[in-house]
């Protein structure tokens, strides 16, 4: 990858690494459904008029079904599953578990996308990542059934990220990233409207949770997904998913420093394994 792509990856990792902390703050007063819907709806409200003004929807004619499918698999589902998981596990651990996304991408590529297949050092990176996941579940998620289910919810979200990336690459090729993001966000918000409406809080949420959700919507969702889809279109899903190896370090720092979360042995081992995985996949 060129320097521009690496810079975009680092920016994206910084944004998404902070998102797990913001989700944790939002959950203080809001349900997982509300956190997911609010961030997506806000992103859609900002991006839709911008995309329309720039005529960014032209390449999406006749692809409404694909847009809805991507919205369900890559946005609405994961954006609900991760907050649901964070009700039981730390934001730092959630950030690390999302690093399973490149693993799923590599495994799926074996069957559905030969261009994205991992070979040599990249395959070694996948193996290192798998070891890290096993260690995390063994060290940090054996204390309770709730924590185990929370971790599995985050891993399932990672699978959604991976599957959605292949759909975007193959079914939405040629479409402008801004138009894709805006359309996917609008579809995802529609999918989550009823679940969110059923969990509206009985009292007004505090300023902290509201600010966290606004930041999630504008930066962690809107701006981040424009960068994400731009990278998919230029360097492909497998290389784009390296962001999932980079973001956990940011998540651990924010969780430990700003939220006071404990840094467990599993967290340290998981981060170390992911750092080696990044080096192996370059």
Protein architecture, described:
Helix 2 packs antiparallel against helix 3, helix 3 packs across helix 8 (177-197) and helix 4 (91-97) runs antiparallel to helix 11 (243-258). The termini are close together. It contains 12 helices and no strands. It has helices spanning 3-26, 32-53, 64-86, 91-97, 101-112, 121-140, 145-171, 177-197, 207-235, 237-240, 243-258, 265-281. By secondary structure, it is mainly α. It has one domain (3-281). The longest helix has 29 residues, at 207-235. It is globular.
Count of individual helical segments: 12
Whole-Å distance between the termini? 9 Å
Low-confidence stretches are 277-281
Shape: globular
| Biggest beta sheet summary | none
Q: Count of DSSP E strands?
A: 0
The succession of helices and strands, N to C, reads: HHHHHHHHHHHH
Content-based structural category:
mainly alpha
Whole-angstrom Rg: 18 Å
Total domains: 1
Helical residues, percent = over 70%
Mean pLDDT: 86
Proportion of residues in extended strands: under 5%
